[in-house]
């Protein structure tokens, strides 16, 4: 392994930090690495060709009052695979907010567990305002560049997908910023996105073309401020949502942001032509959905799959302390999150619902060749009970109902996996799964490559990273063929 430290961020976190999401598997990093020819246990498949990119919240300053695990600065990791070898880089996303706080040596904006009024700066980003543009939530690749995003809406940052150098912001982003979970459609080269705010019309939807220019932007008027986190698309439609878990307007007027579930209100799905403005609304049973896995058209119906929360607002564990109250919204078993299917009938306007699995899972991924198409498999994460930590991966067979699981091991935690179809693959699961782990026993991190058809056999390759990295969530894969300069070998920085 050829390793070099190329950067260090200023951290003002205390040496005796005891925050549950800044210690243990969530211990943040300050070091930026360049590592080539990584050590491998097993064998990297010679046909695995491209990059796995993962974003993470990685805080470097204490919060003004109370840190929430979704507040940290964005740090992106890349593991690149070519000719049976792998390289690694990690870089902070150089957002305006990150750079200003590096200069100031302290937090300048409010986190989501804090009132905006605690922010030291009057400006800021986010639907609720006065937050940092952390760009820490999600990452996709569009038009040859990686785009990092923030779940409360902010600037989209453009990164070189090989070096992770921050190149700037997306020029086309509307004034509300852009939510996490932009959708890159590999077939059309388009990027679908949404933005939300606390002012009418509360939700907007847009499309960016393969030329990286905005080609469509339309209002999706809602009855009030909402908290959409994800969207879905089919070949012809975009699907947005209005779930009955949202900020209380009366509290917003007092400068407080607390989400409440309203079980008396329906869930609503907005279906729009991908480049149109005509909205059809469909009503379903009340719930909240953080992530969708896929959607496709079938006869008169749109089939929409995602993770339904059986209990979007778990009971308040009064007396157990502020962390337990805050973190109940991160525990799949507390929120009773299971894989679900909604069938939206375009002829009758009705919705049929079906539970696809009783197992508590989230963060589902599919073979990208089946996006917006009928498909069979979803690969989703299981969680350490009570913790925002992924302890295994489950392959859901939607045709037979069968499940196959690989557990990372006691106190070993993964990231969102990506599915990498094998070139010339003959079936949907003729593919690799790639993820990053944080191993608390061995005090190290690895990149795992698994065979999607034989998940429970365990990794084909374990690739050692130079440092134990913080646990993290959203990830994406980009094939080498989509990356400029890929065939010149690992990046020089
Ligand atoms: Fe997300």
From TrEMBL:
Keyword Metal-binding listed: yes
Enzyme class, broadest EC rank: oxidoreductase
Details of cofactor binding: Binds 1 Fe(2+) ion per subunit.
Any one Gene Ontology BP term: carotene catabolic process
Xref: InterPro entries: Carotenoid_Oase
Residues at which Fe cation binds: 181, 229, 291, 474
Alphabetical UniProt keywords: Dioxygenase, Iron, Metal-binding, Oxidoreductase
Superkingdom of the organism of origin: Bacteria
EC nos: 1.13.11.-
Entry cofactors: Fe(2+)
Pfam families: RPE65
GO molecular function (one): metal ion binding
Similarity remark: Belongs to the carotenoid oxygenase family.
Protein name: Dioxygenase
Source species of the chain: Streptomyces finlayi
């Amino acid at each position: 392994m050829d390793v070099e430290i190329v950067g260090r961020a200023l951290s003002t976190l205390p040496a005796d930090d005891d925050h549950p999401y800044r210690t243990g598997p969530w211990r943040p990093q300050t070091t930026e690495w360049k590592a080539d020819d990584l050590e491998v246990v097993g064998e990297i498949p010679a046909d695995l060709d491209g990059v796995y990119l993962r974003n993470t919240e990685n805080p470097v300053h204490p919060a003004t009052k109370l840190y929430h695990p979704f507040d940290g600065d964005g740090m992106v990791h890349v593991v690149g695979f070519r000719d049976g070898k792998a390289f690694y880089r990690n870089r902070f996303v150089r957002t305006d907010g990150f750079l200003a706080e590096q200069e100031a040596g302290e937090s300048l904006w409010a986190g989501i567990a804090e009132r905006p009024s605690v922010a030291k700066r009057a400006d800021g980003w986010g639907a609720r305002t006065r937050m940092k543009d952390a760009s820490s939530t999600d990452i996709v690749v569009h038009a040859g560049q990686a785009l990092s995003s923030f779940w409360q809406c902010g600037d989209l940052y453009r990164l070189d997908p090989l070096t992770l150098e921050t190149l700037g912001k997306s020029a086309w982003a509307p004034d509300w910023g852009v939510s996490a979970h932009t959708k890159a459609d590999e077939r059309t080269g388009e990027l679908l996105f949404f933005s939300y705010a606390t002012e009418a019309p509360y939700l907007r939807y847009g499309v960016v073309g393969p030329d990286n220019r905005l080609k469509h932007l339309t209002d999706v008027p809602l009855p009030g401020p909402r908290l959409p986190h994800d969207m879905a698309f089919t070949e012809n439609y975009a699907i947005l949502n209005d779930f009955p878990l949202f900020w209380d307007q009366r509290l917003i007027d007092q400068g407080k942001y607390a989400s409440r579930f309203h079980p008396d209100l329906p869930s609503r799905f907005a279906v729009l032509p991908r480049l149109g403005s005509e909205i059809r609304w469909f009503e379903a049973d009340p719930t909240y959905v953080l992530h969708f896995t896929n959607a496709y058209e079938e006869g008169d119906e749109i089939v929409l799959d995602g993770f339904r929360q059986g209990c979007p607002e778990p009971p308040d564990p009064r007396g157990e302390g502020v962390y337990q109250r805050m973190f109940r919204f991160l525990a799949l078993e507390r929120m009773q999150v299971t894989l679900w299917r909604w069938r939206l009938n375009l002829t009758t306007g009705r919705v049929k619902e079906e539970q696809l699995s009783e197992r508590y899972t989230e963060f589902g991924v599919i073979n990208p060749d089946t996006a917006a198409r009928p498909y069979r498999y979803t690969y989703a994460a299981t969680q350490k009970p009570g913790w925002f930590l992924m302890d295994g991966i489950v392959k859901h067979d939607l045709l037979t109902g069968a499940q196959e699981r690989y557990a990372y091991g006691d106190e070993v935690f993964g990231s969102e996996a990506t599915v990498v179809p094998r070139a010339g693959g003959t079936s949907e699961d003729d593919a690799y799964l790639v993820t990053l782990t944080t191993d608390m026993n061995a005090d190290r991190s690895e990149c795992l490559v698994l065979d999607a058809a034989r998940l429970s056999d365990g990794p084909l390759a374990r690739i050692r990273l130079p440092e134990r990295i913080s646990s993290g969530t959203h990830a994406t894969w980009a094939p080498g063929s989509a990356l400029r300069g890929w065939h010149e070998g690992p990046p020089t920085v």
